[in-house]
Amino acid sequence: VQLQASGGGLVQPGGSLRLSCAASGFTFSSYWMYWVRQAPGKEREFVAAMARSGLTNYAASVKGRAAISSDNAKNTVYLRMNSLRPEDTGDYYCASSSGWSIRPTRYDYWGQGTQVTVSS
Q: Which pLDDT score, from 0 to 100, does residue 112 have?
């Protein structure tokens, strides 16, 4: 199982970006797919999730500004974030699990992080 996240970078406050996570080695449409972030000096926190049914869930801190989506044909999940704030800065990870949990410690598979910096 491999998860490859990409799309991070330096963004000005108020800007947008789209992160991608390419999955291989499993049919990700059969799993919950997650985005998790880790700010400097803090623990990893749940950002967004998508169920195999297409159901989505978001952390309160990003709700209304984030959108998780997928392209099953490409085995890729995306995270679009708008109106970015400095507090959105961190390493963003994609992860997957067979079930739903808001706790990243319960996720089964992880990709490497992609760094997002929101700064002017």
A: 93
**Nearest alpha-carbon partner for 94 in 11, 18, 41, 40:** 18
Within 10 Å of residue 67's Cβ, how many Cβ atoms? 16
Greatest CA separation for the chain: 40
Token output for 85: 């704030």
Q: Could you tell me the mean pLDDT of each successive run of 10 residues in the chain, 120 residues long? A: 94 97 83 95 96 93 97 93 97 95 94 96
Best CA proximity match to 77, nearest among 69, 86, 89: 69
Q: Rounded to 5 degrees, what angle do the CA atoms 31, 110, 79 make?
A: 70
How far is Cα 85 from Cα 111, in angstroms, rounded to an integer? 24
> Residue 59 in contact with residue 104, Cβ under 8 Å?
no
The pLDDT, as a whole number, for residue 72 is: 87
Side chain identity at residue 21, one-letter code: C
The number of residues making up the chain comes to: 120
Query: C-alpha distances in angstroms, 74 versus 78, 104, 107?
Result: 11, 24, 22
